[in-house]
Amino acid sequence: PKTDIVFLKVHKSASSTVINVLFRFGETHNLTFAFPIGGGNQLSYPHHFFARFVQGFSPRSPRRFNILCHHMRFLQPEVQKVVSSSAVYFSILRNPVQLMESSFMYYKGTSAFSRARSLEEFLSQPYHYYNPAKSDSHYAKNLMTFDFGFNPNGEASAKRVQLMLKAIEASFDLLLISEYFDESMVLLKEILCWDLDSVVSFPLNIRDSSTKSHLSDTIVEKIKDWNRLDWEIYIYFNRTFWERIDRDIGRERMQREVKVLRERQAELARTCLQGTGSVAPRDIKDSSLQPLQHGNAKILGYNLKQGLDKEMEHMCRRLVTPELQYSSALYKKQFARKPPQPP
After folding, report:
1. Among the four 222, 276, 301, 322, which has the fewest Cβ within 10 Å?
2. Which cellular compartments is it found in (predicted)?
3. Pairing state of beta strands 5-8 and 67-68?
């Protein structure tokens, strides 16, 4: 199994669920994570990533970490300083239409979105609300482009798009697609030589459907237009994603693998969870499993079954622990103060 991994967490693209997979694998195999200094989940985002943002990194003794997966704005020469040269790089993309709708709810408090009553209103005259000079403006335009390290306000000329796609392709071994999450996990499992249980997950950081809005065809076109660079990235890598499946796995085997993955997930849900799945924030009984609530989104969570044996409880709990709590537990474990040795 591969243990050196760089995951570029792209906002609002099922990244939290992927991170849970990486956290569990890293914890099980005693791997080291490249944590932000002092913990937390942002490597000085939205600034470009620098190796010096990582706790325990020193240019004098270039210590390598196994997994780099916290929020960062990608800058490969700096990333290469903290991971081994054989690390597998991957990321995940989402259809920019759904991504923007999600961002509008989740990042409602940002400068671009706070004054617009609705996404329609924002898109009717975006430059009335959007100021590229503001430090949080990236949430409102070409967010994926920004996370990959490029200029979200660059023109979408054919040449520029081509250069950007080539650069992403040169840096990343795999780009997952969140709309095909289970297929993505099967592909990831193949590339990393992991077993099925390592990529099983429950969806984390997802919104209650009551906070999702329906988008008209006109709005959909406006979103694609406004996020032209993101749209180009998505269309291109959605195509190469399926080309890769055809080449490396084949559709039939992919269907079989997805079926097995879903069966295993259903089995774990029956074992671990109270009720049938996610619940509203107010219904989460264990406060340590309460996900961060943000903007106007209602983020769902889970309740564990009572009376599980110790080992089962541990496994189930890891599957449903929200990103921030899991991250801080791993941070404490990795940087635990060693007790002073007796003389």
Report:
1. 276
2. Golgi apparatus membrane
3. parallel
Q: Which whole-number Å values give the CA distances from 82 to 58, 69, 148, 172, in the listed order?
A: 9, 12, 18, 16
201, 120 Cβ separation under 8 angstroms: no
* pTM given for the model: 0.95
Band the pLDDT of 207: cuts 50, 70, 90.
confident
Q: How far is CA 335 from CA 33, 54, 74, in A?
A: 11, 13, 25
Say if residues 110 and 12 touch (Cβ distance below 8 Å). no
Distance CA 83, CA 90 (A): 13
Whole-number Å distance between alpha carbons of 220 and 148: 23
The mean pLDDT value for 135-155 works out to: 97
Q: How far apart are CA 122 and CA 117, in angstroms?
A: 8
- C-alpha to C-alpha distance for 70 and 56, rounded to whole angstroms: 15
Instruction: Please give the order of strands across the beta sheet that includes 88-93.
Output: 67-68, 5-8, 88-93, 174-177
Q: Rounded to whole angstroms, how far apart are CA atoms 271 and 313?
A: 10
Contacts of residue 222, defined as CB under 8 A and 6 or more positions apart, other chains included, come to: 123
Type of residue found at 127: Y
Token pair 């089962």 in the structure block, residue: 312
Instruction: Tell me the CA distances in angstroms from 81 to 19, 58, 169, one per residue in order.
Output: 21, 10, 20
